[in-house]
Specification:
InterPro entries: Bact_HTH_transcr_reg, Chorismate_lyase_/UTRA_dom_sf, Tscrpt_reg_HTH_GntR, UTRA, WH-like_DNA-bd_sf, WH_DNA-bd_sf
Keywords: DNA-binding, Transcription, Transcription regulation
Protein name: GntR family transcriptional regulator
Largest sheet: 6 strands, antiparallel
Number of helices: 7
Strand content: 25-35%
Number of domains: 2
GO molecular function: DNA binding; DNA-binding transcription factor activity
Strand order of the largest sheet: 4-5-6-9-8-7
């Protein structure tokens, strides 16, 4: 081994190379077995596994062992207005979208309440299934009051950004209220997201406001709980 590189770093590379073809969630040999396989000490194995876990390559369960990680998509919508395609591309992943619905419909009661419009008002509904590296990662439904921009219904959003289109019509999101919770996946969501019925999914909701404080878009995004994670940055408020 190259003495200029720490032993645990060299071991990390050997473990990755040895088990690179294993499927996600597959167990790898125990610490003792890795010691015998690579001829190193147990502390070196533990340090290498700790680093691999921090890198998201493996995960460890107490009393069960170490497993190949299922590479998760990291969503940054909790802290910014970054678009899906831009976010995924920055992670060196390939994003694609499929339009499932692009219709004018009456606003459901809860949506009308969020958007502060009368019940049964007409809204534009854009529903898309989003993929990362050809794997379904998000089922997203966007509701916008139709009177805000009637041209929405005449536009093909299969390869066009909704926000960029709205910006061309001088409509942009200024701030948003967002929430995240875990739900059981019903039939429709489980089918599109390719997960088991009633398995955990993350429900991400966002209510966007224009600069004058008017709500203009309500979004519901559903993610497979084990395939996505959410990342945000927080700061200590300035002391008064």
């Amino acid at each position: 081994m190259d003495k200029s590189i720490p032993l645990y770093q060299q071991l990390k590379e050997k473990i990755l190379k040895q088990f690179k073809d294993l499927s996600p969630l597959t167990p790898i040999p125990s610490e003792r077995e890795l010691c015998d396989l690579f001829g190193v000490s147990r502390p070196t194995v533990r340090r290498a596994l700790e680093e691999l876990e921090q890198d998201g390559e493996v995960y460890r369960l107490a009393g069960k062992g170490t497993f190949i990680a299922d590479k998760k998509y990291t969503d940054h919508e909790l802290q910014s207005f970054i678009g899906f395609h831009e976010d995924a591309s920055h992670q060196n992943k390939t994003p694609t979208s499929m339009v499932l619905q692009q219709i004018v419909t009456t606003a459901p009661v809860d949506v009308a309440k969020f958007l502060e419009i009368p019940e049964n008002s007409e809204v534009f509904l854009l529903e898309r299934l989003r993929f990362v590296d050809n794997e379904p990662i998000c089922l997203v439904s966007s509701y916008i009051p139709l009177h805000i921009c009637p041209d929405l219904i005449r536009t093909d959003f299969s390869e066009r950004s909704l926000y960029k289109f709205l910006n061309l019509h001088n409509i942009s999101i200024h701030n948003a209220k967002r929430s995240i919770e875990v739900k059981k996946a019903p039939t429709r969501e489980s089918t599109y997201l390719n997960i088991d019925l009633d398995s955990p999914m993350v429900l991400f909701q966002s209510l966007g406001f224009t600069e004058n404080g008017s709500p203009f878009e309500f979004v519901q995004s559903r993610y497979p709980a084990y395939k996505a994670r959410f990342e945000s940055e927080v700061y200590r408020p300035h002391e008064m």
